[in-house]
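Worked problem 6 (solution included).
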Amino acid sequence: MIFGRHDLLQDAPISRVLLLACRNVLMYFTPETQTRVLEWFSFALHREGLLLLGRAEMLLTQSHLFAPVDLPHRVFRSRRAASAGVLAGLAVGGPPRDVTLRRPTEAAFAAAPGAQVVLDAQGLVTLLNEGAHRMLGLSRRAIGRRFVDPDLAGMPVDLRGPLAEVQSRGDPIELRDVQWSQDSTSTCWDIRIAPLAAGAGVLGIHLVFEDRTERAELRQRVDQMHHDLSTAPEELQTSSEELESTNEELQSAIEELETTNEELQSTNEELQTVNDELRDRTMEIDRSNSFLHGILEGLDVAVAVIDNNHRVQLWNAAAEQLSGLRAFETEGVLLLELPLGLPAEDTLHALREVVVRGRSRVSLEVPLLERLGNRQLRRVGVSRLQDGSGQTRGAVVTLSDGREEAIPSSR
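Solution. The predicted structure is:
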């Protein structure tokens, strides 16, 4: 007999215990601590082991971990110990193994790849490996509970039908490419459900969950590549036709641009010809204006050219000398508004006779206010000014000393 100190909350449980007496201890723990200690006890007991509690202690909330053997004397047997002891020593369809292989077998099961779960004949969870905890979110609290309970854990698919079929028929079932969506993430799983048989009966069920997401993604990429390769010739043909059509459109556009360029070139040549003609006509007009200006400036007679509205367009040097008004002072001004002292009514009558009625010439004698402020009798001649088409464009007004026949005054 060996005596030793053992901390129920921190030290690892001793395995294969045949009798575990813990009298009047759990009553001093909180419910959470009690649950943790009882889970250790369930794991520590041998498949034939017994748990002895005090008379004041019950397992009302942990009935899934222990089954009563002698309730009045508070003797219990671990449900997990009984089921796991039998299942751990069974191969599918084979004889029980030696008890000495139990711990290596459990260690190998815990480290097995994928998520693996072992159920007993009643559908209660008896064994979980590390993958079941990591991938399916199952903890040790799941041991002793029904695997198909809705609040136990989320499953990729409803397994109640497949589990019942395996339990009744005794044949394994494989579910492939099962889609599982969790938190906006989709994964793909293969699930194998196999019976654990001993002779003609089924003692439990072994479930293996394998994450095939990478394989499914790879297969999807391969299928996409095959699809792309199969459609590549059609796409190339379509692209070739589109390129050919684009080439034809570009060729047509180039031809249109060439035609437009030729039209622009022709228009440019026409504009150049018109520009040359305008330049020649401008030079001719300039020469004519210079010639006319020279003539008007060489005359001793005062000459003023007015338009159809009686506004001064030209005022020669003799007019400047006679009136004292410079040419730039008179241009655009009404003739009757100039300070010449012309009698408005008679002068207006003479202008209308020529500009409006088309008379070739009208003359009248008027007292004219000269530069020095003297008034002298002057003969005013109004001659019609017309263009090459015979249209009246204004009048030429002259001021001279000569005597000519005058028209009667409008008065």
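Discussion: The longest helix spans residues 213-298.
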